[in-house]
Amino acid sequence: MLTLLTIKNFALIESLERKFYNGFSIITGETGAGKSILLGALGLLQGKRADLGSLKNKEEKCVVEGHFNIKEYKLKEVFATLDIEYEEVTIIRREILPSGKSRAFVNDSPVNLADLQELSSYLIDIHSQHQTGELSDENYQLHIIDAVADNNSVLEEYQAHLKQYKKLQSKLKEFLQTQAELLKEQDYNAFLLQELEEAHLSDLNQEQLEAEFDKLNNVEFVRENFSHALTVFTDEQVGLVAGLREARNILSKLASISKEYEELSNRISSVDIEVEDIVGEIENMVDSVISDPEQLAITNEKLQLLYSLQKKHQVATVEELITIENELSGKVFLATDLEDKIVEVTKEIESLENVLERLAKQLSEARKKAVPVLQKQLIDILKQVGMPNSNFKFEFEYTAHFMSNGKDQMQLLFSANKGMDFGLLKKVASGGEMSRIMLAIKSTLAKYSNLPTIIFDEIDTGVSGEVADKMGEIMREMSKEMQVFAITHLPQIAAKGDTHFKVFKTAKGETTTSQIEELTYESRITEVAQMLSGKDISESALVHAKELLQR
């Protein structure tokens, strides 16, 4: 239940701190006094959108803080699921900064708005006038029946499986799209892969092949030049070998004369030896350079294949071709591997469909059993509020699709009078009737839900007199199960409260502020009397007010 509300710098409120109590609390005040501001502040605690225009002083931040005593409401699991620290007195705070940024905290830990909205749905329900439209929403109608049918645990299990089911469906869709794309390219990829595999790229050394090709392709040119070089070295008359030997013999005669001449003689001896070694190597190479047209053709074929593959794949090395080969191999394998994954995911989906079907049928059967119970309770309450001949009809259709709350589609039909045909609720019920129906539903839900606090914002719209008195009785009865607030303009309802708060405006200089105060018994008499007769309170209005409060 809401035990304390603090508001600073919000709309017409400069600073406000107000304690609230268990039971039935009434909030009254003139139109424009600031009742909607209170609801707006509570809306921030529910995670609703913050508006920079709500700041009274644009230079300071706005803070709204609510204390909720939730010791008796078994909400630890909800906090654990949202990864929020649990406290028996939980404090929710919203801040709107002058920059326009908004922050939310639960027990002094920052939270995102989605988690705050989820958490607040377990703490407080604010029923505004426009929310009677919820009654026309099929999901809300099913929510009412599920509460009476005690379907919560089954529904949670269904929704957990449905979440996994949707994930698997998305995964299957992704796999099928990928497979379709791969299949379009698979034949071509397989052809390219086969072409690269047949080239045996790991056995090819491009540099060696090019060197071998140059040798084999230039045999005659090589032999001719080697032969010419040998002639230069070995010609008997003018050959380099003969000349070096003659020079070596001449210089050897001078070696004994001085060390300098000896070193020169040794050097030419070394040159002579090196030249002889070169001549021998050239002779060996001449013998090894053999024309081999067959090997030349094989080498040329390998190189041409290599050049062709490099051109096709727009690369320059064997290593890059091998990388492409590996990538193509992965793609071809992936197309095959995807088929296995698709089969596996399809089986998981089929298994989950069986589970979801079982749970959906369980939900549907429980709903149909709960309808007579709900129907009787609603009709009994509506009889009390001036709708003695009202009746409901719940029409179910079991669909082929798994929806967020099962496979049921439902229409809630209503008849306000005997002999009147049933019609869709939103089409056949008046505004006043919708208010009373919503109260009947909220009253019924209070018996089955574990909600700590509910606030009715002028749910008495369109009713008066005896009906209003009965509506007040119903809300007072609800307050035995939960904390109930009623914002009202009707004295019959205002007199039913355990506690009465009044919202009012004060003007000081150029500044107008809204405030809320708890009324004493005497001031309650005055307030109710004013609601009965207006600003000029008559003696009879005071007497009537006392009578209403003493009932």
From TrEMBL:
SUPFAM superfamilies in alphabetical order: P-loop containing nucleoside triphosphate hydrolases
Gene Ontology MF annotations: ATP binding
Coiled-coil regions, chain positions: 151-185, 247-274, 335-369
GO BP annotations, alphabetical order: DNA recombination; DNA repair; SOS response
Any matching Pfam family: SMC_N
Keyword annotations of the record: ATP-binding, Coiled coil, DNA damage, DNA repair, Nucleotide-binding
GO cellular component terms listed in the entry, alphabetical order: bacterial nucleoid
The RecF/RecN/SMC N-terminal domain, residue ranges: 2-511
Role, per record: May be involved in recombinational repair of damaged DNA.
Record family assignment: Belongs to the RecN family.
Name by which UniProt lists this protein: DNA repair protein RecN
Species in which this protein is naturally found: Myroides albus
Gene encoding the protein: recN
